[in-house]
Structures are given as structure tokens and as C-alpha cells.
Design a protein that fits this description.
516 residues; D-Maltodextrin-Binding Protein, domain 2; Dipeptide-binding Protein, domain 3; 2 domains; 21 strands; Peptide/Ni-bd
Length: 516
């Protein structure tokens, strides 16, 4: 069982080296005759928005990695993750604390007749992100200067070493074709207007996504001629398909991970990307039933998180104390509240609340449903009746977004899990005031939190940065709007003759899978 971990020392060492000399790609070149035929993997739902600026993430990032250019990519270095330039660049160098110079490889073609990849595409892609749903990733960037057809400079507004790991390697760092996006109306959804990568993309809603070799691709050949990503909403069903020989790689449920760790199936392997996920139960601070802070605090004290870790996750995940994940600067050692049903009842009495009825919404997945049922029982014990409402993936991710309808007004409680990248800045960006009605579904604002967010971007002293992120999580918790639950490892079961490739947060990169 391979389990890469992220130590603080390892992470800081990797970011300290970012401004070194020009780097080479080091990509392996695989001949076509060495490629596997078909790779069969699981995705948990349809990709609804492939546009990097307006996606949800997850499997949509996985699709971007196959079809769009990136300047940098994650690479495992021993038991840590760092970064390296991709095949798309011949130069990627931090020449000054606020200047990142790049030179693109020659002759990389966009599909559909849109010509070659150019530095102007990089400028268009990154500057449009500053007005997107993922704008926080580019808060440290001012603009991109184009100095030639293939050369340019990313200009930061302040020094921020994790820009490589947080922004350039992750989904928002994808480069799109300027003219193709403009021809598509400025945004795109379920198909790429142009691709520049080893695979083309086609989808059959509700069934699968197929990645096939791109005949115009001149870069390194991927490990497989064809990738079939089957839509399987329940991970248990995907595990059964693997056992039947119908799947080559699937995410593992916690109980199966615990079982296989003791008794590995024949001809199989397990790879764990890391614990860069954080799960919590959120509360809508603007909802009439939850506007009283004492009611929210009562709910915090009423939930037995330890029971959730054992009952829903088979003891395979780490207890969460905030949004900063294990191994990262700013991870909290504990919370300022504890499981205390008597305290919960007392707070409800102080608020003058009795007979409270709430709805808890969750993705319709086994672990989330088990978690919701445990919370339901916990809250019933202090006099709160909870209705659990399972929601499918598509509508779930739109519940708190004002642009998607009026469901945000009805939200009371929900279970939410975000994946993150190896720096605490990434996690905090979703909870600033400007994210209310987008991803800050709890709908609180705090001037100190917003100020600390900006300070965290600019601060280079690690001890001071840590204090910033510890304080930001304390502010979040003090709203009473969060019950922290766990950091779940992203683990994959795969054929023993396949070496899989994952980001630290668990997204798969099929183009970098290898046939052993």
C-alpha cells in the first residue's frame, strides 16, 4: 500500500526551491507499441461544466488534464508532492519574486483548426480567471505580459511562492484557446471548443466519458490508447465491477479500504493520494431557524464526531478540527467545542427554542448518508428533529449558488466536502465575503477574516502565516456554522500492473498512468 504524505518540512522545502534555475520536463516518452489498449475507470457523475472558470471540480479537472495545456504539474518526490514544468513549456522560471517567465513548446496544435498554442492563450486564460468562480486562485496575480508568440511573464501583485503548487498545477491553471472560447460565446459547458493534449473528449450523459488519442498531438504518448470513464454513482458498485474484471481503477470506500489493507485482493494494488479533503456540516446563518448563534452552538455540541469516524468511515479517516488538512501549515490540534449533549440542551433552553425541525441535505453516497443518519440520531437526543434529504450530484453542487435558483434560501443543514491543494490559502478562499452566494453557503461575513485572507497571501514568514490560518479557522468556528468532521484519504484500488497518477487532492491524471 503506497501512501504519500505531506509533511510541513517537505512542503516548505519544495516551495523554497521554486525560484531556482530553468527546469526541464523529465517526461517519459512512451512508444505507441508500448501503450495499453483501454483503461477503464470510474467517475461519480456527469461533467456539467468543463470550463476551468466555472466548473465544480473533481472529474472535470481530470478531464481538463487530458485535453488542455498546463504550465506545471504535480510530481511525487519520495513521500511528498512537489511540482515540475510540463511538456507544454521549455522554460518556467521565477526570475523575480513577482515575475514568472515561461516559454511554450513549439508546434502544439489546438483542434478544430485553431492553430498552435500561443502565449496569448496563456494571457487570455489566466486573466479571465480573475473574473471567474475560481478567482481566488489568482488573487496573487496581476496580469500576464506577452513578449513573443511563445514567451511571456506572469506578473504577481505580491510574492507568493505557492502560486506554482496551488494555481498552476491545479484545474484553474488550465489554458484554453482564446479564439475558440470567444467563438463559443465566452464560456463553455459540456464540451471543449478546442483541445490541445493527448486525448479528445466525448461524453454520453449518464453513461460514460471516452478519451481517445488526439491525432494532432505531438507530445509524449499517454499510457493507454483509450480511456473509458464510466459514470457509477455508488462506489460499492464500482468495487464490484473491479472484482468482476470490468474496471481497472476505482475509488475505494472506507470500509473496503480498511478490509483490503489487511487482506489485499490478488493482482491488485492500492494507492492513497493523501488527506487533502475536509468534510463538515454547514449551517445557513441567515435561515430564520438558525439565525440565533446559541442554536448553532447547540448543534455543534450535539454531534458525536467520533461515532461518525467509526460508524461511517470505519476508522480510516483523520478527525477534522478545521479546513486546513493534515501535513499543512496551520492545521489545528483541536476545536473550541466538544461533544456535550447536556451543553447543547442548555444552549437551546437559553435560546428559548424547542421542537426545532431541520432538513439535512447530503450527496446520495453511502458514507454521507451514514454520517447524516448519525447526526440525525445525535440531534434527536437533544430534542431537534432532522429530516435527511439525499441529493444527486448535479443539483447538490448548485444548492447554495444564487445564480442557480432559489434553493439557497431553503438551505438549513448540509454535509459538504471540499478537496484542496498543498497550501492553507486555497482552503480559506471559499469563505471570504465575496463568496457568499457562490461557495460560502453559510453566508456569514467578517472583516477580520477578509483582511487576514489578504495578509496570508502576502506573508512570507511561515510562523506568521501559521498564526493567520489558525486565527481564520477560529473565526469560522466561532460563527457556530460548522461542525468539523474528517479528512478522508483519497484511496484507489487498481490492477497491479498499472501505475496510477494522482494529484495530492486525489484527482486522477489518466495521461500519466503507466502500464507496468
Amino acid at each position: 500500500m503506497t501512501k504519500p504524505t505531506l509533511s510541513r518540512r517537505g512542503f516548505l522545502a519544495s516551495t523554497a526551491a521554486i525560484g531556482a534555475a530553468t527546469m526541464t520536463t523529465g517526461w517519459p516518452t512512451m512508444g505507441r507499441a508500448e501503450m495499453g489498449k483501454v483503461l477503464r475507470v470510474r467517475i461519480d457523475g456527469d461533467n456539467n461544466v468543463l470550463d476551468p472558470g466555472f466548473m465544480v471540480g473533481g472529474s472535470e479537472v481530470e478531464a481538463q488534464k487530458q485535453c488542455l495545456p498546463f504550465l506545471a504539474e504535480y510530481v511525487q518526490d519520495g513521500d511528498t508532492f512537489t511540482w515540475r514544468p510540463t511538456y507544454y513549456v521549455t522554460k518556467l522560471e521565477q526570475s523575480e519574486p513577482t515575475r514568472i517567465d515561461f516559454e511554450l513548446a513549439e508546434g502544439l496544435q489546438w483542434s478544430n483548426g485553431y492553430g498552435t498554442l500561443k502565449a496569448s492563450d496563456v494571457k487570455f486564460s489566466y486573466e479571465r480567471m480573475k473574473d471567474s468562480d475560481w478567482a481566488g486562485y489568482f488573487d496573487a496575480m496581476d496580469h500576464v505580459e506577452v513578449t513573443g508568440d511563445l514567451t511571456g511573464t506572469i506578473v504577481l501583485n505580491k510574492p507568493f511562492a505557492p502560486f506554482f503548487m496551488v494555481t498552476l498545477c491545479h484545474g484553474p491553471g488550465a489554458i484554453v484557446c482564446e479564439q475558440a472560447v470567444k467563438d463559443a460565446g465566452g464560456k463553455f459547458t459540456i464540451d471543449f471548443p478546442a483541445v490541445c493534449g493527448p486525448y479528445t473528449y466525448s461524453a454520453t450523459p449518464g453513461q460514460r466519458v471516452v478519451f481517445e488519442l488526439n491525432p494532432e498531438w505531438t507530445g509524449p504518448a499517454p499510457g493507454f490508447e483509450r480511456v473509458e470513464a464510466h459514470v457509477i454513482t455508488e462506489v460499492k458498485a464500482s468495487e464490484l465491477a473491479f472484482d468482476a474484471g470490468e474496471m481497472d481503477c476505482t475509488e475505494l470506500s472506507p470500509d473496503t479500504l480498511a478490509r483490503y489493507a489487511k487482506n489485499m485482493p490478488e493482482n491488485a494494488g492500492i494507492t492513497t493520494a493523501g488527506e487533502l479533503q475536509y468534510l463538515w456540516m454547514g449551517m445557513n446563518t441567515e435561515h430564520p431557524k438558525l439565525q440565533d448563534l446559541k442554536v448553532r452552538q447547540a448543534i455543534q455540541h450535539a454531534v458525536d464526531v467520533e461515532s461518525i469516524l467509526q460508524g461511517a468511515y470505519s476508522g480510516t479517516s483523520t478527525k477534522s478540527n478545521g479546513i486546513v488538512c493534515p501535513g499543512l501549515l496551520g492545521q489545528r490540534p483541536n476545536t473550541n467545542y466538544s461533544y456535550d449533549p447536556a451543553k447543547a440542551k442548555a444552549l437551546l433552553d437559553e435560546a428559548g427554542v424547542s421542537g426545532l425541525e431541520l432538513t439535512l441535505r447530503t450527496l446520495n453516497q453511502q458514507e454521507r448518508m451514514l454520517t447524516a443518519q448519525i447526526i440525525q440520531a445525535n440531534l434527536a437526543a437533544v430534542g431537534i428533529t432532522v429530516k435527511v434529504l439525499p441529493v444527486d450530484s448535479g443539483p447538490f453542487w448548485e444548492m447554495g449558488m444564487e445564480s442557480k435558483g432559489d434553493t439557497w434560501q431553503e438551505l438549513e443543514l448540509w454535509l459538504m466536502r471540499y478537496a484542496t491543494t498543498p497550501d492553507p490559502y486555497e482552503s480559506t478562499q471559499w469563505f471570504v465575503s465575496s463568496q457568499v452566494g457562490i461557495w460560502n453557503w453559510e453566508r456569514w461575513t467578517d472583516e477580520e477574516f477578509d483582511r487576514l485572507y489578504e495578509e496570508g497571501i502576502a506573508e512570507t514568514d511561515t510562523a506568521k502565516r501559521e498564526e493567520i490560518y489558525l486565527r481564520m479557522q477560529e473565526i469560522m468556528e466561532n460563527t457556530g456554522a460548522y461542525v468539523w468532521i474528517n479528512h478522508e484519504p483519497e484511496s484507489y484500488l487498481h490492477s497491479a500492473d498499472i501505475k496510477i497518477n494522482t494529484a495530492p487532492s486525489g484527482e486522477l491524471n489518466y495521461r500519466r498512468f503507466e502500464q507496468m
